[in-house]
Design brief:
The protein has nine helices and 14 strands. The protein is an alpha/beta fold. The strands form four sheets. A seven-stranded mixed beta sheet has the order 1-9-8-7-4-2-3, with helices on both faces. Strand 2, helix 3 and strand 3 form a beta-alpha-beta unit.
Length: 392
């Protein structure tokens, strides 16, 4: 079996990681030259920068004027946990679990918070749970986009406009790439290192008036760690939503977040960000449709993510392998692409079915996606040949 010919075109930026994600086009370290380093984050100038992250984020995303948005510790995970620990327990809760992170929220709710009236609505990778089972009288916890499964919610029709419960939405791989139905949500979280390619460890927490009311009227049955506290003396800690962070933030990371936000504004805001991401998905869809070695983990086009695109490997030699063989072969394909310097960090998530995961958010150039795709087939054929030679 002859080795496949090597593609001639290479991505200019081979960074396709799903987090931290690729920097915006043209990014360079000197973009952070105005960072307020060596300063107290409580000083006027640095605090103004943190407040600017909040105001620019809210403007780009179209956050309703009566919502509050703050910077919180520990990335999106910290923001989600803060919401779960602070808000749940007032009524029964439904959890949509259809990939790794949403399954983690379900585990935390059932096994850590030990809520007996929790209903986990599950689905395997590549699919969504039965959304008709969502009870509007219950709180609802969901991920808008399944970062590890490549599945997104197609709309919010299953969420009742007159719902009694709160909707807590992990939107970290959806924000700045998809429309979020703010009128159907009550808590929305994301992190800096996803769609705009910022540096890690900082989360964003957006609260609707209904969520604020719950905070002020509901006292959780468990002790509340300081890092999760959003109220003090029965009142909302308003400073969190004005740039006064609970713990010490990185002003270098804040400067990087501002750089990404300014870039987003410069290209046309959310409509442009969505268009770039959807164009990347369309290129991958055309590649898959042309036939070859790959398919989508999300078989239904209506629920395919335009950011964390998860591919299965459909080549006959691959599907003939047992589960362990498939897992190893998928790792070999990803490792070969990394060795060639054409794609870093695109192995499928460790708990997902064997395959590849390509971040296709707005900071990734369409030309780089187009240059990458022939390399996927090349790598699959290379590994097929190598494995066949070993057997022979």
């Amino acid at each position: 079996m002859a080795l496949a010919s090597t593609p001639q075109l290479r991505p200019r930026n081979p960074n396709f990681s799903s987090g931290p994600c690729a920097k915006r086009p043209g990014w360079a370290l000197d973009a952070l030259g105005d960072a307020a380093l060596g300063r107290s984050h409580r000083a006027k100038g640095p605090k103004a920068k943190l407040a600017e992250v909040i105001t620019r984020s809210a403007a780009i995303l179209g956050l309703p004027a009566d919502w509050r948005l703050g910077i919180v510790p520990a990335s999106d995970t910290g923001a989600v946990e803060m919401a779960l620990w602070s808000l749940l327990g007032a009524c029964p809760v439904d959890i949509l679990a259809f990939e790794s992170f949403s399954a983690t929220w379900a585990t935390d709710i059932v096994k850590q918070l030990k809520l007996a009236d929790a209903t986990v609505l599950e689905a395997p990778y590549g699919k969504l749970p039965d959304l008709a089972r969502v009870n509007p009288a219950h709180d609802l916890v969901l991920a808008w986009n399944g970062t590890t499964s490549g599945v997104r919610l197609p709309n919010a029709d299953f969420i009742a406009a007159d719902r009694a419960g709160l909707v807590i939405c992990d939107a970290t791989s959806a924000a700045f790439a998809m429309d979020l139905p703010w009128e159907k949500l009550d808590v929305v979280t994301w992190s800096w290192q996803k769609a705009l390619g910022g540096e890690a460890a900082h989360g964003m927490l957006a609260l609707s008036p209904r969520a604020v009311e719950r905070l002020l009227t509901h006292k959780p049955a468990w002790p509340m760690p300081k890092i999760f506290r959003l109220t003090s003396g029965g009142k909302l800690t308003e400073g969190i939503f004005k740039g006064e962070t609970i713990n010490t933030p990185s002003m270098l990371c804040a400067e990087d977040a501002l750089d990404g936000l300014r870039w987003a504004e410069s290209i046309g805001g959310l409509p442009a960000l969505k268009a770039r991401s959807e164009a990347n998905l369309a290129a991958i869809a055309a590649f898959v449709a042309a036939g070859g070695n790959f398919g989508f983990l999300a078989a239904d086009p209506a629920i395919r993510s335009c950011t964390s695109v998860c591919l299965t490997i459909t080549a006959p030699w691959f599907t003939a392998l047992d589960a362990a063989g498939q897992a190893e072969a998928a790792k070999q394909i990803a490792a070969l692409l990394e060795k060639e310097g054409v794609a870093y960090d695109i192995a499928g998530y460790r708990d997902a079915p064997p395959g590849l995961r390509i971040w296709a958010g707005a900071t990734v150039e369409l030309a780089d996606i187009q240059a990458l795709l022939p390399w996927l087939d090349w790598a699959a054929r290379q590994i097929e040949t190598q494995r066949a030679q070993k057997v022979a």
